């Protein structure tokens, strides 16, 4: 990765080809087999399943800014090229609320026409999240939405209630409260979010995710899980199949990597990605090939998880 992101400096993925084309299986290394098996179901569906048709040909894409210092903001955003929306990571371990404020202000001053959204990955207390939004509004910085400011659904609901005292424009988005709970519809049923941030792989695939969208009845942003371009192509297909799509999606994360395995990586141009499948480049596969012990680890994991499907 170009910049350390949520504690990660690199990603590992297993790629395979099916009747539809190439797919990616890349659950994070610490995930237990039961959770990783859900990601495998999604990858198998994308490789060989009956996929829904897409309703659009291209998807608007947001830039993603890691929790870097203010002097690194422009360098970190440069690989995204032109963009109309940026998601700023906050609540990084070891950093302060002032670090977050400095980063946000730097983006606001450097890119005054760009829409700003924040993502705390559940890392803030309700009071801290309210304080951060309050400081932004007091300085005239408008936020499109705040993604997963707090960890639990109850905290999200409380944050949303308190937020309305300050603004009826800033939306609350849920990510971990959808994909990391037993019932992905619980956050919508609790009225704790205005927007759902969905990833196809951890939810079991494109069709399963579309079912959740229909049942939840909330606007959706499709995001990646730091995938290669092959994994991102599945997210693009999901975004293209949504009945409605009003927000830019977080599918531009290939720009955050030094390299990719695709012949033609999915890098946004002018804030847009075309919906398409990609194929791996054999030369790049050799460059990024896992060492034997890592390949063995993944194949053993694959056998265990496949038995759980």
Structure description:
The chain has 309 residues and is of the alpha/beta class. The chain has a single domain (54-288), classed as Alpha-Beta Barrel (TIM Barrel), CATH 3.20.20. 36% of the residues lie in helices and 14% in strands. It contains eleven helices and eleven strands. It has helices spanning 33-48, 73-77, 97-110, 126-138, 153-163, 176-179, 186-189, 206-216, 229-241, 282-287, 292-306; strands at 14-17, 22-25, 58-60, 63-65, 85-89, 115-119, 143-147, 171-174, 195-198, 220-222, 272-274. The strands form three sheets. Strands 4-5-6-7-8-9-10 form a seven-stranded parallel beta sheet. Strand 5 (85-89), helix 3 (97-110) and strand 6 (115-119) form a beta-alpha-beta unit. The two termini are 31 Å apart. The model has no long low-confidence stretch (mean pLDDT 96).
Topology:
Blueprint: E1 14-17, E2 22-25, H1 33-48, E3 58-60, E4 63-65, H2 73-77, E5 85-89, H3 97-110, E6 115-119, H4 126-138, E7 143-147, H5 153-163, E8 171-174, H6 176-179, H7 186-189, E9 195-198, H8 206-216, E10 220-222, H9 229-241, E11 272-274, H10 282-287, H11 292-306
Parallel strand pairs: 4-5, 5-6, 6-7, 7-8, 8-9, 9-10
Antiparallel strand pairs: 1-2, 3-11
Main attributes of the structure:
309 residues, alpha/beta, TIM Barrel, two-stranded antiparallel sheet, 11 helices
